[in-house]
Amino acid sequence: MEEQNARQLNTLVIAGFMAQGTNFSVWCRANGLRPENGRKCLSGTWCGPKALEWKRRIVTAARVAELASFAAESSTVGGC
Description:
About 75% of the residues lie in helices and about 0% in strands. The chain is globular and about 35 Å long. By secondary structure, it is mainly alpha-helical. It has 5 helices and no strands. The chain has a domain at about 15-60. The chain starts with a helix and ends in a 5-residue tail after the last helix.
């Protein structure tokens, strides 16, 4: 279950950055984080205090909450 959640979060993060016209790797480099370490934060394999802070920053920058909310609202449109 945790692995599935990590994959879903990763998908939302990628989509969030794409919707903003950028990508995860570009954001990481611009913010001083190696993309491979960013992926470790999102997957939970890197999970110390710094990793949790980076995860929060990544999720916020990708606008995951907005994207998830939009997806939930869209799934109920038209009764589908």
